[in-house]
Amino acid sequence: MNGLAALLNMQVHYISFSAHADYAQMSTFLKELMPLDIVLVHGEANELMRLTQKLFTEFPDGNTRIMNPKNCESVEKYFTLEKMEKTIGRLAEKTLDVGDSVSGILVKKGFTYQIMAPDDLHVFSQLSTGTVTQRITIPFSGAFGKHISLQWSSEPISDMVSDPIVALVLNISREVPKIVVKEEVDVKSEE
């Protein structure tokens, strides 16, 4: 980029096939891949048209788009942001009905996404779970000594409970505002 070297976190996989494959070889290759789009290039126009027609018979479901652009004609491909996740491990053993939800850990590996139970994380990946313990020490002069320490395992409910406790301890030593009556007013009710 602009003459600078950039480190890439990627792997390169090679697929070796000849540009001079016959129809049977190409058909087998395409049936294995089941691509959404096939773009035919490099060939005599009449033969490419025959190949296009033959491929239409191989992929009659309409899920595969077959294009045969003319020389120098650009082909545009738009990618959606939609992602597919695969449930594995204990979560995959459950039979779900329409509308049921799945709760687990989403792990991205290469271009695939997997949802698994936290206990399955070490089985299906090189990751493991851990617990975050939080501790706060608050200066406090009173019956408890010179400070108060609170410690809890970090999770949404524990975090929610600890916040008001910390606020209470921090405000305990503050002077409570006093209500002072400056003037008394005698209010009589009319009968």
TrEMBL record:
SUPFAM superfamilies: Metallo-hydrolase/oxidoreductase (SSF56281)
Domain Zn-dependent metallo-hydrolase RNA specificity: 9-59
Gene Ontology CC terms, in alphabetical order: nucleus
Keywords of the record: mRNA processing, Nucleus
Chain ranges of the Pre-mRNA 3'-end-processing endonuclease polyadenylation factor C-term domain: 101-144
Keyword Nucleus: yes
Compartments reported by the entry: Nucleus
Main localization of the protein described in the UniProt heading: nucleus
GO BP terms, alphabetized: mRNA processing; snRNA processing
Molecular functions per Gene Ontology: RNA endonuclease activity
Annotated protein name in UniProt: Zn-dependent metallo-hydrolase RNA specificity domain-containing protein
Organism field: Brassica oleracea var. oleracea
Taxon lineage: Eukaryota, Viridiplantae, Streptophyta, Embryophyta, Tracheophyta
